[in-house]
Amino acid sequence: MDKEIEIIYLEADEEIPSVISRLEEAKSENLVLVVPKEAILIHSVINLKLLRREADKRGKKIAIVTKDEAGQNLAKKASFPVYDSIAQAQSLISAKKSDLVYLSKRKKLKKLVRQLLHQKFLESPNKLCQGREKQKNLFFHVLKFLR
């Protein structure tokens, strides 16, 4: 698997055809697009969906680096990984897949446990465990994990 990362700096007024041609010229399959605030590309869901389609056709994996919050939200909606810095993008792209799966599962587990606790179990953990020692221990380990 190609772990080399190519960084492409875009201009604020760069249109989607130009970005797609730069995508075609890229030698690496892992690309980081550095997009300035108020750039045309990240303020149009249509542009981002076109970029996603073209990247998928060419087998390119794209991450977007921008400080533009509105652009970050739209890019996330178009299924792009979004980062605040190039260093953050590079470290996560080059991380082992098993590390990323672990982090993803941990986040999901935390979210699920928080939802369960907030729904009804926070009030009475003993009722949740129903006197079973293993379940009590697990419950308290999960609480410790969430801190």
Please tell me about this protein's structure.
The chain is α/β, with parallel strands linked by helices and 147 residues long. It folds into two domains: 5-94; 98-146, no CATH class. Helices cover 58% and strands 12% of the residues. It is built from seven helices and four strands. It has helices at residues 16-25, 45-58, 69-77, 86-93, 97-121, 125-129, 133-146; strands at residues 5-9, 30-34, 61-65, 82-83. Strands 1-2-3-4 form a four-stranded parallel β-sheet. Strand 2, helix 2 (45-58) and strand 3 (61-65) form a beta-alpha-beta unit. Helix 1 packs parallel to helix 2 (45-58). The two termini are 37 Å apart. 16% of the residues are buried. The mean pLDDT is 77.
Distinctive features:
alpha/beta, 2 domains, single chain, 7 helices, 147 residues, four-stranded parallel β-sheet
How is the topology of this model organized?
Layout: E1 5-9, H1 16-25, E2 30-34, H2 45-58, E3 61-65, H3 69-77, E4 82-83, H4 86-93, H5 97-121, H6 125-129, H7 133-146
Parallel strand pairs: 1-2, 2-3, 3-4
Helix pairs in contact: 1-2
Shape: elongated
Low-confidence stretches: none
Helix tally?
Answer: 7
Q: Overall mean pLDDT score?
A: 77
Distance between the termini: 37 Å
How many beta-strand segments? 4
Helix content: 55-70%
**What percent strand?**
5-15%
Q: Indicate how many domains the architecture comprises.
A: 2
